[in-house]
Structure formats: C-alpha cells, structure tokens
Automatic annotation (TrEMBL):
<feature type="signal peptide">
    <location>
        <begin position="1"/>
        <end position="29"/>
    </location>
</feature>
<protein>
    <recommendedName>
        <fullName>Lipocalin-like domain-containing protein</fullName>
    </recommendedName>
</protein>
<keyword id="KW-0732">Signal</keyword>
C-alpha cells in the first residue's frame, strides 16, 4: 500500500510540474505568429466612424488619411506620422456592442464588424487595431475609425468594386479604385497659381472611384457617367498649348487614349497609371489604391 501511495504522489507531482512547464514555456504562451492578422503593410481605404463618434480631425484630415499607408511590425508601428517603437501588442476579444459603448460611447451597428471584436492595443496608446480577417482591419485615429486593406492582397473592401464584365470591358483600363499621387497645371486661367497649388496639396492621397455607376473624387461626383473614348494625336487634341509642350505630362504619348466624361477627362496610360484632367484644367495622376508597394509606379510629381 505504501508503495502504491508513493507512486500516486509522484504521479501527481509530475502532473503539476508538467502543467507549470507548459504554462511558462513558449508552447504554452501565445504563438509568435498570433499577430499575423495585423502585421504587414496596409493602406487606408474608407472612413467607417459611426454616428456620434467625436474627433478633432477635420473633414480635410479625414480625406487626407484615405489612401495613406500604415506599417505594422513587431519592432515598429507607423501611421499618420505616429511612430511607436517596440509596440508590444496586447490583444483581447470583447463583445462588440459593449466594447464600443464602454470605450468610445458609440453604437457599433454601423461598423463592418461582427458580434465579437478582437482588440489590439500597443504600449504607445495612439491607435487601436481591430482585425476583422487576414486582409482587413479597422484602426482608430483620434476618436474616428478607418478601414484598412493589406497591401498586395486581392481584398475588395472599398466603396467601389468592379464586376467581372467591367474588369473585362472597354473601360477596364480605368475602372477601379485609385489614389492621386501627383499633379500638374498651368498658372493661367480663372484660378490663380496659389489656388491650384492649394488644391493639388488637398488632393494628394485622395481616392478616385471609377465604375459604370459613378466617377467620384473629392467634390467631383458623377452618377451613371457616360464614357466617350477616342484616339487622338497629342498636339492636335491639345491645340499646341502647354499640355503638348515637351517635358509636360511626360506619360502622354503622341497618340492618346482619351476618355471624356461630364466630370473631367481620363487618360489611361497603362493598367497601373491614369491621368485625370478636371474641369479647371488641372491634371492629376493616379495609381491603383491597393497596388503592392514593391511596384514603383509613380505619376506626376507633386509641385
């Protein structure tokens, strides 16, 4: 009997020791890839703040953030000029309705999230991340919330998505979601040089949505636009003015593809670059919003 009791006691001690070793070992802790749903390069695609959200961000600030990059790594969190070294991400899962009311005093029903939300905070406290799947997350910024998509993914979490027929149709080279990355203009005209320069600065990073249903960027909103395509000789089409001058609008070849709409004219250069001429005569270059950052396609320089 004594030997049996001794063996049982040893067995119990062994179980306790094993439990402690599993708890404190790397196997018992969260795996190293537990943050895989937030790590990587991201781009902001949409403002998703619910009614009642309060922030010091202005409407211009919100527009500026659309299209901006966000970098999340174990060593550095970087977004909107915030940098957090050794962010030490801490996560937990909350009831969505309870969490957003308790922490933000807002109703989460308007946000693109489920009944349970993963909350990821960092030690700097500037931003909170809410991963919704491997290619989408929501990030808080000064009381407002923005949806982000992983750079290089095939995610379609933008206000404008294109159907299969649109992606294969005559306007496939312009349909999609773009972001403005450069501008050019002539100082003459009804708008002064200073006015156009200010407008160009505001437009940088703004999204452009082009589909069969609408052509939209900033205050330019065309519903059910008519796209009139033609091939034109550059010098003839621009009547020999500044737009045809050597060194200006360098992406435009001698033979242009011109797509005219009632909200401006689009000049597709290739699948990764378009130029947009607005009704005031300003030109904006735009690249795909979700292009892989390894792709170094760039448009006009920002003057």
């Amino acid at each position: 009997m004594g030997a049996i009791k001794m063996n049982s006691l040893q067995y119990l001690r062994a179980l306790i020791a094993l439990s402690f070793s599993l708890y404190f070992s790397p196997m018992g802790a969260q795996p190293a890839d537990s943050d895989a749903d937030i790590l990587g390069k991201w781009r902001i695609v949409k403002h998703v703040s619910p009614t009642g959200a309060t922030s010091s961000l202005t409407e211009r600030d919100v527009r500026r953030l659309i299209g901006q990059p966000m970098s999340v790594s174990a060593e550095l969190f970087e977004f909107n000029n915030h940098q957090c070294a050794r962010p030490d991400y801490r996560r937990n899962v909350e009831d969505t309705v309870d969490y957003f009311y308790r922490e933000w005093r807002v109703n989460s029903d308007e946000m693109p999230i489920g009944a349970r939300i993963t909350v990821v905070e960092n030690r700097c406290g500037n931003n909170v991340l809410y991963p919704t799947n491997k290619d989408h997350l929501i990030v808080s910024e000064d009381g407002f919330f923005f949806e982000a998509v992983r750079v290089g993914s095939n995610a379609a979490a933008t206000p404008e998505s294109t159907s299969t027929s649109e992606r294969k149709g005559a306007n496939a080279d312009i349909f999609g979601t773009w972001t403005i990355d450069g501008a050019d203009w002539q100082g003459s005209g009804k708008d002064s040089e200073a006015t156009k320069k200010s407008r160009a600065a505001i437009y940088m990073g703004m999204p452009v949505y082009i589909s069969a249903r609408r052509f939209f960027y900033n205050e330019n909103q065309c519903k059910n636009p008519t796209y009139k395509r033609s091939r034109q000789q550059k010098t003839v089409y621009f009547h020999g003015d500044w737009r045809a001058a050597k060194g200006r609008l360098p992406f435009l070849q001698n033979m242009l593809t011109v797509v005219e709409t009632n909200c401006g004219t689009i000049y597709p250069i290739n699948r990764k670059l378009i130029l947009i001429e607005d009704r005031s005569g300003m030109f904006f270059s735009a690249v795909p919003l979700l292009q892989d950052e390894r792709d170094n396609t760039h448009g006009l320089s920002a003057r």
